[in-house]
Amino acid sequence: MNIKLILLINLLILNTSIVFGYGESSSGHPNWQEREAHMILNSVRIANYFPFTLPSNVMSNEKYPAVDPVYYDDKMNKLSKLHSDDMAMNGCFQHDSCNGTGIMQRVFANLDPKCLRAFAENIAAGYSSGLDIINYWICEKTLTGKECYPDGTKDGHRVALMSSKYNTVGTSRVVNDTSRFKTYWTQDFELNGCNKVPPSPIPSGSHTFVNNKLRYLAAWSSTAAPTSVKIHLNQRLLSDEKQYQLSLHLGSASKGIYMYEPDTYNECQSYFFTFTTADGTTYRYPTSGFLKTVTSATSKCDAWTSDLSLILSLSL
Length: 316
Known about the structure:
Domain SCP: 67-189
Keywords: Signal
Number of domains: 2
Helix content: 10-25%
Structural class: alpha+beta
Distance between the termini: 11 Å
Protein name: SCP domain-containing protein
Number of strands: 14
InterPro entries: CAP_dom, CAP_sf
Shape: globular
Signal peptide: 1-21
């Protein structure tokens, strides 16, 4: 029997009871730009760092000290997407729903009030990438980073980004080419009193482009540093996998951002991250499946694919 066919049959058996795991996508979300925004957000929170040079009076350590990362939450992502969809399809740009329903009515209709301890929301329109949108919410003014409102002045988005009170986030990007701004973003933060244990010591992972240079980034947050951090890059076959060590880029070894910068890359190349601790435990992000090296809004691949769908893409 064809070896690829045997592998496919085995994977069909293994995937008959797939459970949604941390870092995976549900119904196409988070897409790449949403995942990128989450990763850049945690880079800012963990290390008070942004890839572009900011004025000295913006994101100062005194006003905005480093804080813990926030974890992606599917319910928060769906809540944020509900509002981005509303703005994109119904032509408003505001925190309240386009029909006038108040923001907290939307929140309480979609979240468990017994668990909700604190909430904040950022919105924006017209920005393409996750890097661009975090840049705007930090600067409050322009994409360049050269003109920003100083700390303490019109920096409400910055306050939400850097608040230590939140532990989960959902960020949505919705496009409607017939609408005024084309692209609409909503970012919802929550302090969830029912989520006592983080789903993983790897809060986020993604890739981004800084000055046209590809960077693979993953966050680690635990009481101890990992002994090994790797990215696993795949072509079409699982046997094509190549592993590379990530180096500490920002923060500390136990709470930091790890990075790998390849010299070359392929569109839609699959990848995942592993962190191994001193006791031999290995954590994977995403829990299963693969992230994809999406390079633009017009890329033909999804941001995440299951192990099974990667094999199904092969010719038997």
